[in-house]
Fold:
Amino acid sequence: MRDVFHGQILGAGSTSGVRIVVGRWLDSPLGGFADVMLAAPDGRRTLLAPSAEVATYVGATYSFDEVVRTPVSVDASETRWRIDAGPLQVSVELGGRTALGRLLRLVPPRVARSTALAYVTDPVARVVLRGVRTRGTAGQGRRETYGATDMRAVTGLGGTWAGEPLGELAPVSPEPGFGFSSTPQRPSLVTLATTITR
Structure:
């Protein structure tokens, strides 16, 4: 089995303590879709999934206390993402490419997305980006690798979760604990390929 998901992951924290990880998948075995992993200030982890198929697959790959089926849409532009996911409404402002993003752009996409490179870069990622790993377990005897090709800064955030204000942008801290890897602590938008193999 080899499932490859091509898209983007946006990770951001807020001064309310809510941390979000938004996946915008343009091409995947499940088709194009978006989903949200959310960690509340008390640590409770919720998956917002647009379909039963996504809820089952993502729920078996990462750890959640609750899975909510709800339409998830991402209105993405060069400067802003607007996310509408049932109880979560959020607008995120995007900045320029980071220094790491500029380095990632130098690597040919095919090489950057290879599972072999993920094993080589994992020790480096652990040191350079606290909490980030490029390989690990994906549950049910599966392995997962990440191959990033770009990174941009997230510069602003506003919105509500369950009717309560999120506050302003903050680091993704503490680490949400959805799986073996976290998004970078510094809010960011990463373009990548995620590969899950058995």
About this structure: The chain has one domain: 2-197. Residues 26 and 180 are 23 Å apart (CA to CA). Residues 2-197 form one domain.
